[in-house]
Design brief:
This protein is mostly beta strands. Helix content is 0%, strand content 58%. It is built from no helices and seven strands. The N and C termini lie far apart (41 Å).
């Protein structure tokens, strides 16, 4: 019997902080294999102080809870953060160490 081969991508993660409308919260940034081909939205904000365009998506999490995510790229590596119960807002600032 043959087994299908799977491409396994090691996942890295880092603590992140998200600042929107003067409020800061913590999040976890994780690596992903590729940027989503399409996103529901794109917003301009800041990543570690530099301008960045985030690709935003959403999907059903465990137990039919809708999860929102922001994807971005750093030195060729795709990262994403769970943005909670809504999209990342335009002008938001994300800081993290990769």
């Amino acid at each position: 019997m043959t087994h299908p081969s799977f491409h396994i991508v090691s996942t890295m993660q880092s603590r992140a902080s998200i600042t929107e409308a003067g409020r800061t919260r913590t999040a976890v940034a994780k690596t992903w294999s590729e940027m989503p081909p399409t996103g529901q939205r794109r917003v301009d904000g800041f990543l570690n102080g530099a301008p960045c365009r985030f690709v935003l998506t959403f999907g059903a999490g465990r137990g039919a809870v809708t999860k929102f995510y922001a994807y971005f790229e750093v030195r060729g590596q795709v990262w994403y953060i769970d943005t909670g119960d809504g999209y990342l807002s335009d002008g938001a600032s994300v800081d993290f160490k990769d």
